[in-house]
From TrEMBL:
InterPro entries: MFS, MFS_dom, MFS_trans_sf. The chain crosses the membrane at residues 51-69, 76-95, 107-127, 139-160, 166-186, 198-216, 228-247, 268-289, 295-315, 327-346, 352-378, 399-418, 424-442. The keyword Transferase does not apply. Keywords: Antibiotic resistance, Membrane, Transmembrane, Transmembrane helix. Pfam families: MFS_1. Residues 10-447 form the Major facilitator superfamily (MFS) profile domain. It is found in: Cell membrane. It comes from the Bacteria. This is MFS transporter. Its main location: membrane. It comes from Streptomyces rubradiris (Streptomyces achromogenes subsp. rubradiris). It is a multi-pass membrane protein.
C-alpha cells in the first residue's frame, strides 16, 4: 500500500472514530447524579455497572478484536464496530430499566473494542514508515481529545439535556462515521497467518475481564474481600491458562513470547502509567471542581479543557523526535507525575488559573509521551500484527486508567471527606507515576526492531480484503 494512500480525509475519519469511542469512557461519569435520580430507579451497584460495563467489555475484547481485524479485514472490523457501538447506544437510550441500560453499555464497549485497534492498524498500513510517527501523533491526540469530549459532552448533557439524549446522539453520529469510512477508507492487506482461536480468545477475554472487575470493584468491596480476591485469582488462572494454550497452539491468538521484547514491555508499561495518572486526575478533577469549587456539570466539563492544549500542540513536536524515544518518553511521563504532585496542593482557595497551569503541565507530558509510546508498540511487532499491537497498547491504557481510578478512590476512602483526601490521593498517584517512569526509561529501547515471535511472517504478499 503506497504511503500516499493516507489522505487527509482518511486520517480525519479514522481519528474521529477513535475519538467517539474513547469519549464514552468518560462521558457517563458526569451523568451519575442524573442517572441516580432518574425514573429507572437504579441501585448504587447498577449505577456503577452502567459506568463500568463499557470499560470492562472494551478493554477485555481489545486484543482479540485487534487480531480479528488483522486476519479478516480491518475496514470490515471497523464498520462492524461502529454498528455495534450504535446498537448499544440505541439500547441504552431506549432502556426501560437498568438491566438493558447496562447491556447497551456493554454492547457499545464491544463496538469500541473493534473500532480502536482497527483505526490504528489501518493508519499504520496506509502511512508507511516515513509518515508513521505523525499518524500515530494524530491518533494519540484523538484518544486524548476523546476523554475531553466525553467530559464536555457529559457535562453539557447533565446540565441542559438528559442522559438519554447523550446516548441517542451517538446513533446518528456512528452512522455518519460509518458512511465516511465506507467512502474514504481503502481496504488494507490482511494477515495470512493462522485461523480463529476460539479457546484462546475465550481464555484471554475472561482473564482480562476478571482482572478488570477486581480493579474496578476493589475500592467498593475492599481489596481483601472474598469477591475481589476470587476475581484476581480467577483472572490469574485464566491468563496462565491462555499462556499455556498459546505456547502449545500452532495458530494462537497471539504468541506471548512477543513480550520477550524489552521495548514492547517498556512501551506497554509506559502507556499504562500515563493513563494511570491521567484517569486518576479525571476521577478527582470532576469531584474537586463540583464539590470543592462549586462548579456546575457544564462548567466542570469546560474547566478541564486546558488538558486539550498540550495534547493538541505538543505531539507536533514529539513526532519530530521519534528517532529518540527514550528522552521523549521519560520527560513526558515525568511531567505527568510532577503535574499531579502540583495539583495535589489544590484546595478551595486555589485560583482556577493556577489549577489550569498544572493541568497544562500534565497535558504537555501526555502529548509528549503518548505518541512515542504508541509508535513503540507498533514497531515492536511485525507489520502484519499492527491490529494486535494496537489491542495490546489500548488494553494497557484501559487497565492503567482503571487502576488510576481505583487507587485514587481507595486513597480518598481513607479520609473523612473529599477535600482532605484529594491531596494525599494525587500525591500517591503522582509519586507512583514518577517511580514507574524510571523503570520505563531503563527498559525502553530505541532500536525499534520488531519482536521475534514463534510464528514466522508470511513469505508471500498478503491478500487485500
Amino acid at each position: 500500500m503506497p504511503a500516499h494512500a493516507l489522505t487527509r480525509p482518511v486520517l480525519l475519519t479514522l481519528c474521529a472514530c477513535v475519538l467517539v469511542a474513547q469519549s464514552m469512557v468518560a462521558a457517563v461519569n458526569l451523568l451519575i447524579p442524573q442517572l441516580s435520580s432518574s425514573g429507572l430507579h437504579p441501585s448504587h451497584t447498577e449505577v456503577l455497572w452502567t459506568v463500568d460495563a463499557y470499560v470492562i467489555v472494551f478493554a477485555g475484547l481489545l486484543v482479540p478484536a485487534g487480531a480479528l481485524g488483522d486476519r479478516h479485514g480491518r475496514k470490515g472490523a471497523l464498520l462492524a464496530g461502529l454498528a455495534l457501538f450504535a446498537a448499544g447506544a440505541a439500547t441504552s437510550a431506549l432502556a426501560p430499566g437498568p438491566a438493558l441500560l447496562i447491556a447497551g453499555r456493554g454492547l457499545s464497549g464491544a463496538g469500541a473494542a473493534l473500532i480502536t485497534p482497527a483505526t490504528m492498524s489501518i493508519l499504520v498500513h496506509l502511512a508507511g514508515p516515513e509518515r508513521r510517527a505523525r499518524a500515530m501523533a494524530s491518533w494519540t491526540l484523538a484518544i486524548g481529545l476523546g476523554g475531553m469530549a466525553g467530559n464536555l459532552g457529559g457535562g453539557l448533557a447533565g446540565q441542559y439535556l438528559s442522559w438519554r439524549a447523550l446516548f441517542a446522539a451517538m446513533v446518528p453520529l456512528a452512522a455518519v462515521l460509518a458512511a465516511a469510512v465506507a467512502v474514504t477508507t481503502p481496504r488494507t492487506a490482511r494477515s495470512a497467518q493462522g485461523s480463529p482461536d476460539p479457546a484462546g480468545t475465550l481464555l484471554l477475554t475472561a482473564g482480562l475481564v476478571a482482572v478488570l472487575f477486581g480493579i474496578i470493584e476493589g475500592p467498593g468491596h475492599g481489596w481483601t474481600s472474598a469477591r475481589i480476591l476470587a476475581a484476581f485469582t480467577a483472572g490469574a488462572l485464566l491468563l496462565a491458562a491462555f499462556t499455556g494454550h498459546a505456547l502449545r497452539s500452532r495458530a494462537p491468538l497471539f504468541d506471548p513470547r512477543v513480550f520477550r521484547s524489552a521495548g514492547l514491555r517498556a512501551t506497554t508499561l509506559g502507556l499504562a502509567t500515563g493513563f494511570f495518572g491521567l484517569f486518576a486526575l479525571f476521577f478527582v478533577n470532576s469531584q474537586y471542581l463540583q464539590q470543592v469549587k462549586g462548579y456546575g456539570p457544564a462548567v466542570t466539563g469546560v474547566a478541564i479543557v486546558p488538558l486539550i492544549v498540550g495534547m493538541a500542540l505538543v505531539p507536533r513536536f514529539a513526532a519530530r523526535w521519534s528517532a529518540r524515544p527514550r528522552p521523549v518518553v521519560g520527560t513526558g511521563l515525568a511531567l505527568i507525575g510532577l503535574g499531579l504532585l502540583a495539583a495535589s496542593t489544590a484546595d478551595a482557595h486555589t485560583p482556577y488559573p493556577l489549577y489550569a497551569c498544572w493541568l497544562l503541565v500534565i497535558s504537555a507530558g501526555t502529548g509528549l509521551a503518548m505518541p512515542a509510546l504508541t509508535l513503540g508498540v507498533v514497531v515492536s511487532l511485525p507489520a502484519h500484527q499492527a491490529g494486535l499491537g494496537s489491542g495490546l497498547g489500548t488494553s494497557a491504557r484501559e487497565i492503567g486508567a482503571a487502576l488510576g481510578v481505583a487507587v485514587a478512590g481507595t486513597a480518598l476512602a481513607g479520609h473523612a471527606d473529599f477535600a482532605s483526601g484529594m491531596g494525599p490521593a494525587l500525591r500517591v498517584v503522582g509519586l507512583t507515576v514518577l517511580a514507574v517512569t524510571a523503570l520505563v526509561v531503563i527498559g525502553h529501547r530505541s532500536s525499534g526492531r520488531p519482536a521475534r515471535t514463534a510464528v514466522a511472517a508470511p513469505a508471500t504478499r498478503e491478500p487485500v480484503v
